[in-house]
Amino acid sequence: MNQELNISWKQNLICIWISQILCMAGFSLIYPFVPIFFRDVYHMNDQAVLGLWVAILTFCGMFSFGAAAPLWGALADRFGRKLMLLRSYYVTGLLFPLLYFAPNVYWFVAIRFVVSAFSGTVTASQTLVVTTTPSEHHGFALGALSTAFWSGNLIGFIIGGLSINLFGFFWSFMICGILYLVAGILVHIMVKENFEGTMSQPSAKTAPKKKKRWDMILHWAPTIRCIMFIFLLMGMARRFDEPFLAIMVETIGGKENTALYTGLICAGAAFGGIISGFVIGKLCDRLEPQKVAIPMVILGAVTMVVQAFAEQLWLLAVARFITFFCAGGLEPAFQTMLARNAAKEEQGALFGWSSSARMTGIIIAAAIGGVMIYYTGIRGVFVTAAVLMLLLLPLLLVLNIIERRSYQFSGCECVSNQKRVI
């Protein structure tokens, strides 16, 4: 029986890993090149206006995603995590290609708003992996899954940069949808989940023990609250400059071959994320995640500053590679913190809320980034991203203090809203 369970979680991880490579490749065929699409198709040649619309697009997309994520997390706990992953694959695969046919930027933003509300493959895949993997392998599994995100990004960046440079945008949008649908079919057929939901109504004896969703949030343990703030700030720092990279490439290297250079720089950065996903994910199983995260935060902030003042594309590429190596290490570290502090029956909901926290950070970053690029230019965006990254350090210190106090208090450790005796 144990051998069968061991094979099952490994099979699930491999299949979800492949499916995430496919969908992230599809997403990366489009996302970094949106500023170029706006410039060439909607004729936005003013950098300030272009940056503002990119920020508006990011804001609207992340707002709908963040608003919907807790709902999908709750439904995952009730109807199954696999079903929610399939929902994100199939709906996104059908709707994403419609962006190409948007007649103007207003329709483009509106379609992106709808697509984002039904997306969320990253959170859904993380939740499914965590709930089907033994706890002692969470760090490795989440780290491995992180490499799938980066691997898919790398493939998508390269193919997107080349295809757009040679054939235009049409095939990038079409291939994006196809890859999402193929990923959904793979999970549908190969991934197994022994799920026991809560579809039936609770009995009178058990009903009073069930917490309402918002009541659960109000009574989160201090560690959970602090981790949620970390996810929020991480969303701000990690994605603050990302929507505007193509504009930075154009600023340094000119308008010629902007898509190609953007794709190659993004691919190199994604390779850094691939390396760190395995290395840092494995370290999180052996060391305290906070000890792993702190040096990653410092190094990531330094290389963000280097990007801000880069005058050559090769320097931008090298600094971004190191930044993404650090970011790839932070993701599994923070996810492991949450998994270790959450009760198993609440992990789906908490991962949904962590995704909302991260998306809220991205929403705030998009609003601030739009203002920054409009008034200070593209380099001010990268400097602000470095400052936000450094602000993670005091939050990690606060989390460490809270955890120590929870261990000392009555000889108990707070886990989500419960306490278990050490």
Structure write-up:
- There is one protein chain.
- This protein has 17 helices and two strands.
- It is mainly alpha-helical.
- A two-stranded antiparallel ribbon has the order 1-2.
- Mean pLDDT is about 80; it is low at about 1-5, about 200-210 and about 410-420.
Summarize the structure.
This protein has 422 residues and is mainly α. Helices cover 78% and strands 2% of the residues.
Question: Layout of helices and strands, plus pairs?
Answer:
Elements: H1 2-28, H2 34-41, H3 47-79, H4 81-95, H5 105-118, H6 121-132, H7 138-167, H8 170-190, H9 213-218, H10 222-239, H11 245-253, H12 258-286, H13 289-308, H14 313-341, H15 347-375, H16 378-390, H17 392-408, E1 412-415, E2 418-421
Antiparallel strand pairs: 1-2
Helix pairs in contact: 1-6, 1-7, 1-8, 3-4, 3-5, 3-15, 4-5, 4-6, 4-8, 6-7, 6-15, 7-12, 7-14, 10-14, 10-15, 10-16, 10-17, 11-12, 12-14, 13-14, 13-16, 13-17, 15-16
